[in-house]
Amino acid sequence: MGLTKQAASKAIYLAIKDYSIWQELKQRVDGCEEITVTNPKSKEVLTKYGYHYRDLEGYVVKLEKYDRKDEKSGSRYFGFKMHMVEGADTFILDMPYHSMILRRFLRIAPNVDWARPLSLTVFRGKKKGQGSEETGIWFRQDGATVKSFYTRDQPNGMPAAKQDQHTQEWDFKAQHSWLVDQLINCTAPEILAIAKDASRDDHSEAEEPESTQDHRDGAGTNTAEEWGITDDDVPF
User: Fold this and answer.
1) What is the pTM of this model?
2) What is the mean pLDDT of the chain?
3) Which residue in 25, 98, 115, 118 has the most C-beta neighbors within 10 A?
């Protein structure tokens, strides 16, 4: 009897960069975007290839925790990868531990119906003081904004941030760590259980592109005003 080898499913790796969703390619292909980036440590200027997107939608089927160390630089990388499927496509979105995407996701996660598709829009947010603009993250289901479950008025068990009585600076480390524990112990198992019941288990095999902390020279134009997003939709 003849046998046909099953081809491995290829996943698309994504990250939040330049106020957009970024898919990096290992090499240049026709029609891709070309950007210039600077390594923050070595200051080396490099050319990267890929695509910028504003939206991502699909069923969340898995949250994968990662904790790795770069042997060359000694840098530690810690965070989560959110696996999403839409039809035959599998997307894996990087959510580093200190990133805006993870901070927003931690607060809305308990209000997400994991049996339904989740939509994510990334845009240029408000400018704070003399610094750069925030990266806006907007989660929706069935066209409606997914509201934060953990808020200042309704913390739902979330510990309050601490303020230094001398410097007046706020420390969110303990609060962030508590939210990450909730994600690991409550949200991640719930996602896997629902995905298994719906037969949407993720069996994709893909080679992940090299992690980079580079920053693009210049800025995009993807703004909240362009999308008609208000503060009620996305609390910064």
Assistant:
1) 0.79
2) 83
3) 118
